[in-house]
């Protein structure tokens, strides 16, 4: 198969559209973005190391990706099961649980990195 650069660019465009369709509409995503802005500012003010930035950025990526997966699952559930169903509810709750696990882990890592500076 030949590598199609234009198709690749289009795929990035669709991915970007997917992200934009969530920003400002998902309350949890907005919360994470605000928290990340605060952590980034704190990182600059406190002068965390390059290795610490690497870990912080990895945490940002994991939490945002988890939130996007969760939103995609929520929307898919709403599409296939607009009526209430216990399994539909469980699917949403499990996906939300996965985000919570990532967010709590990121928060603990943040405390481990930032507390020594304070
Ligand atoms: N189709 C469904 N069947 C059963 N339970 C559901 C369903 N959709 C949502 N739930 C339950 O409600 C919780 C909140 O879901 P969600 O955030 O999608 O809001 P909602 O109840 O669908 O209402 P809204 O979309 O108006 O906020 C889910 O975590 C789940 O426990």
UniProtKB/TrEMBL annotation:
Ligand binding (substrate): 67
Chief localization: membrane
Name of the coding gene: dgkA
Residues the entry annotates as binding ATP: 14, 26, 74, 83-85, 92-93
Cofactor annotation: Mg(2+)
Transmembrane segments annotated in the record for this chain: 29-49, 55-73, 94-117
GO cellular component: plasma membrane
Keyword Kinase: yes
Residues noted as binding a divalent metal cation in the record, renumbered to the chain: 26, 74
Similarity section: Belongs to the bacterial diacylglycerol kinase family.
Organism in which the protein naturally occurs: Bacteroides stercoris
UniProt-listed Enzyme Commission number(s): 2.7.1.66
Any one biological process term the GO annotation gives: phospholipid biosynthetic process
Annotated protein name in UniProt: Diacylglycerol kinase family protein
UniProt keywords, alphabetically: ATP-binding, Cell membrane, Kinase, Lipid biosynthesis, Lipid metabolism, Magnesium, Membrane, Metal-binding, Nucleotide-binding, Phospholipid biosynthesis, Phospholipid metabolism, Transferase, Transmembrane, Transmembrane helix
Subcellular location: Cell membrane
